[in-house]
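mind reviewing these tokens:
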Amino acid sequence: MTARKDRLKKLVKVQEQLKALHETRHAGFLAAAVRAEAEAKELIEHFDTDRSLAGLFPALYHKRITDALGRQQQNLDNARQEAALIAAATARTNMVERAYKDERRRDERERSDRERLDLIMQKRTSDG
């Protein structure tokens, strides 16, 4: 195996790990956004119930709802940024994989050519 082929193989692995990291972070941000939205909805639903303390502390409820919606928006923004990083990582991974496959094919072609040349040389020495 050539040194370039080895380096490209390792680079493919690193790129795939980086892509997986961004995918995991993206999923985490989406899950956090869903949780924040659910919290805001729950607070809104409980705001007008008789047993709610919202009548005593309306500002507190409004602040918690606003904070939950803000967290939701921030997590959605972070998820969008991670989606862009996933796209970039995917493009880099594909590019490195193509280079690795090209190098592997070139390496196999050279090895095959050497084997044929060796066979020809053996044939000549045995005929001679």
Observations:
- The mean pLDDT is 92.
- The radius of gyration is 30 Å.
- The CA atoms of residues 64 and 71 lie 10 Å apart.
